[in-house]
């Protein structure tokens, strides 16, 4: 599988199916793991990194269940391809921008991704469409067991799985649910939700993880604590709270409709109209407008467009995707024009 | 002198550089702790270094802090000072070597210091040989950098023999 092949497809998590998929885009679980007999990445030299990379590839390749994963050598990729993998949520920004030997292994459906030499030697990730944390856990737990048969993890009786940053030690597990909350943003309720979540040790971040702004009203809700609670407890903590957030969002949507349906319909229609007719449009504005359109579809205000198509547009209109689809590097201004053309082509066909 | 924020006595005298110039603050320990706590950041690194500096500044003298900062892991060579700045540890052995310093940090971040979750299915952990492997790899690096290839070869053979046993 080549990176170019990925540009024309879309990941399993964009399918727009699964429980609560009108509001929950995806569920993701990642496990941080380190090999017992190497220093953590910060103290590794180039030889260590290359050794870790080759050890992981070699050992995983000898396991039947892991043999089908495709390894991509991130170190030798062009910056555009690395950015593409970040937009695809297959690698982190840190992994894309760091130095030295590093790789990512993915499966054909883009549900599994295994980053080698990120902040930890291994970052294992499973992504599911909609709210499906139990499904994600079953899959990642099995994958972790298979990997552990091939590699000896750094593990301590008291502290659990040892990680480069003490904020990940113990289970090494981060459970994240990506939620779409436009009505809570419009009604200025979003800050209140964040504050309540923080009180119960949950973190809210933007679409691309740490340090990123929320784009298109998408927010990641995840656990902060990784030590002292079992994996099941951590999953339940996030899994129990997300339905409450979903309920708030539904109530806010209901309120907006009851308050002034014409105003809401006007906002959604204008957003849809701008996406269909703009001649030049930034990534940020596209996300904002697509967010309104996505909500409009859920509320039955737009009949000729489906959620999976909008989910794909969110990803495909981002800078690296746009350039991969266009098959050439583009300046910011050229991208803004190409993005408008791309939206025009994809949304116009819906009218036919 | 009284604390500027409450009526308790001020024991912390802080000079802070703000956008408007120097700001002199006289605070009690509680208000100082609150003031020194960094604003909530959405990245993990500033948060952990913030928790660390907060704990250490208030509980240790400058000499104690300097001594602690110079403490170095014999396996990976990372000093506690370097960990404090970067928020990242150097090797698995650091959890043992800096155990006493890390426990209050873990308690503060996670509210616990005991893992209760999943554990690897393979139980035969020979942590000593794993630590030995990290140490030998460090020695090999040094031998190569000193162009002492004979020694490096010798170390590599020892690494291989340990790896073959595990």
Automatic annotation (TrEMBL), chain A:
ATP binds at residues 26-30, 123, 174-178, 205-210. It comes from the Bacteria. The keyword Nucleotide-binding applies. GO terms for cellular component: extracellular space. The keyword Isomerase does not apply. It catalyses: L-arginyl-[protein] + ATP = N(omega)-phospho-L-arginyl-[protein] + ADP + H(+). One of its GO terms (molecular function) is protein arginine kinase activity. Coiled coil: none annotated. Residues 23-252 form the Phosphagen kinase C-terminal domain. Its EC number is 2.7.14.1. Catalyzes the specific phosphorylation of arginine residues in proteins. NCBIfam families: PRK01059.1-4. Belongs to the ATP:guanido phosphotransferase family. This is Protein-arginine kinase. It comes from Mariniblastus fucicola.
TrEMBL record, chain B:
GO terms for molecular function: cadmium ion binding; cobalt ion binding; copper ion binding; zinc ion binding. Keywords: DNA damage, SOS response. Residues 130-165 form the UVR domain. It comes from the Bacteria. This is UvrB/uvrC motif protein. It holds the Pfam family UVR. It comes from Mariniblastus fucicola. Signal peptide: none annotated. GO terms for biological process: SOS response; stress response to cadmium ion; stress response to copper ion.
């Amino acid at each position: 599988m080549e990176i170019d092949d990925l540009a024309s497809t879309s990941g399993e998590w964009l399918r727009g199916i699964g429980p609560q998929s009108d509001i929950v885009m995806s569920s993701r679980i990642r496990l941080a793991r380190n090999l017992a007999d190497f220093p953590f990445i910060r103290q590794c030299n180039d030889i260590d990194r290359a050794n870790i990379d080759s050890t992981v590839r070699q050992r995983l390749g000898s396991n039947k269940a892991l043999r089908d994963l495709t390894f991509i050598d991130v170190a030798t990729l062009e910056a555009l391809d690395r950015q593409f993998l970040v937009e695809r949520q297959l690698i982190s920004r840190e992994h894309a921008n760091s130095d030295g030997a590093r790789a990512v292994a993915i499966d054909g459906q883009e549900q599994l991704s295994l980053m080698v030499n990120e902040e930890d030697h291994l970052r294992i990730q499973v992504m599911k469409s909609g709210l499906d944390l139990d499904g994600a856990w079953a899959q990642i737990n099995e994958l972790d067991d298979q990997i552990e048969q091939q590699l000896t993890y750094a593990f301590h009786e008291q502290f659990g799985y040892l990680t480069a940053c003490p904020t990940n030690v113990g289970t090494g597990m981060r459970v994240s649910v990506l939620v779409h909350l436009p009505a809570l943003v419009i009604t200025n309720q979003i800050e209140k939700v964040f504050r309540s979540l923080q009180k119960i040790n949950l973190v809210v971040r933007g679409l691309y993880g740490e340090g990123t702004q929320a784009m298109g009203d998408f927010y990641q809700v995840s656990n902060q604590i990784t030590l002292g609670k079992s994996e099941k407890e951590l999953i339940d903590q996030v899994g129990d709270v997300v339905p409450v957030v979903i309920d708030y969002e539904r109530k806010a949507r209901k309120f907006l409709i009851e308050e002034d349906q014409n105003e809401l319909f006007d906002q959604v229609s204008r957003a849809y109209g701008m996406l269909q007719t703009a001649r030049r449009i930034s990534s940020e504005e596209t996300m904002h407008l697509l967010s309104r359109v996505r909500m409009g579809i859920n509320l039955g205000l737009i009949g000729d467009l489906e959620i999976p198509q909008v989910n794909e547009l969110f990803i495909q209109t981002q800078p690296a995707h746009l350039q991969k689809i266009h098959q050439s590097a583009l300046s910011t201004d050229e991208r803004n024009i190409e993005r408008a053309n791309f939206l025009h082509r994809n949304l116009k066909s819906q009218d036919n | 002198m009284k604390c500027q924020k409450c009526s308790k006595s001020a024991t912390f005298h802080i000079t802070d550089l703000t956008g408007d110039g120097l700001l002199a603050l006289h605070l009690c320990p509680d208000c100082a702790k609150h003031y020194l706590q960094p604003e909530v950041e959405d990245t993990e690194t500033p948060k952990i270094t913030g928790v660390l500096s907060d704990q250490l500044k208030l509980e240790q003298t400058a000499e104690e802090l300097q001594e602690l900062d110079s403490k170095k892991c014999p396996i990976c060579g990372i000093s506690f000072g370097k960990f404090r700045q970067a928020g990242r540890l150097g090797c698995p052995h650091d959890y043992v070597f800096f155990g006493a310093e890390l426990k209050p940090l873990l308690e503060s971040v996670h509210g616990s210091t005991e893992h209760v979750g999943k554990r690897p299915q393979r139980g035969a952990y020979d942590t000593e040989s794993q630590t030995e492997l990290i140490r030998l790899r460090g020695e090999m690096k040094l031998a190569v950098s000193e162009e002492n290839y004979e020694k490096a070869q010798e170390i590599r053979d020892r690494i291989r023999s340990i790896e073959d046993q595990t």
